[in-house]
Amino acid sequence: MTRLPSPRLLMGPGPSSVSPAVLAAMSEPPIGYLDPELFELLEGIRAGLRILFETKSRFTVPLTGTGMAGMEACIANCVGQGDRVVVVSAGYFGDRIAELAGRLGANVDVVRGEWGKAVETSALRTDLERGSPPVLVAAVHAETSTGVRQDLAPFAAVAHEYGALFLADMVTSLGGIPVDVDGWDIDIAYSAVQKCVGAPPGLAPVTVTDAVLESMHQRGLPHANWYVDFKLLGAYYDSPHTYHHTVPVNNYYALFAALGEAFEEGLDERFKRHQTASNALIAGLREFGIEPLAPEAIRLPTLNAVALPPGVDDLLVRNNLLSHHGIEIGGGIGKLKGKIWRIGTMGFAADMKNVERLLAALKTELYR
Questions:
Q1: What is the mean pLDDT of the chain?
Q2: From CA 203, how far away is CA 192, in angstroms rounded?
Q3: What is the reported pTM?
Q4: Is 9-16+266-366 CATH 3.90.1150.10?
């Protein structure tokens, strides 16, 4: 087998590189899924996630699975057959929310925006004025396919005006830029730990307001997906801890360590570090004639989507970065496949030394 440089520097759309301390934490001996020490660990994780999400919601938990598990869990718990769901989408992952809701039996409307731009609140309002009242409105905070940050509070306000719950995808924002679930009046949100949070893949933080959780239970939807039924999961996470499934305890160790690093650094400093790394990356790329896709006002500092300059072989450069330098960056997906690179400055990888290493390697490959 061909041996590539190791360890890799992961600066793609995720997963991102993690710190040695987080990796060491993951190597702790596992304990059982009903061990008292496990629930002490989980309480610490849940408290930390509430801080990251800026919420007081009791049901704030690290679900087993990656961000897509979080997405499916949130939709499955609040959408029934024939419910109207409205999804605001200007990218690949907005479209995926719509696809999942449709697979779960919802009648889905998509408020489409141009990839690389934010969607106006007026477009959502226009859609909501048509048809039956929606049960759910959903949008992506940080669109991983375009590098665009979408303001969510106006969407949540409009959704509530029409009697709908509001669901937010925070996969590429949690831990890297400010989020404020309670302040923005978001009912349900999900994320993933392998990006800005700084842990290995395998867990999906989810938060649901107490009022919405109670309304879900009262509605009594027949859950098609037993594994992510929030009522069953709540009985496991909360005392007396009824067995549900074998949880990935070693991922919990790693997440607890990653949260500890985040709070030791301080969230304001952490957000500043992500922005500084992104600014340096964009400035360096511009020297090669590579420009960002999104305007500065809505550009993510965590995921840098940049347009390929004419004549550059996308796959050749990315493959050479990996095989010659041990650095991974991502290509475009969906409508932007072959047109952009997606370069992450997330978590442990959002560091000036890493940016400088990537820019030096790119210079070698672009002018080889």
A1: 95
A2: 6
A3: 0.96
A4: yes
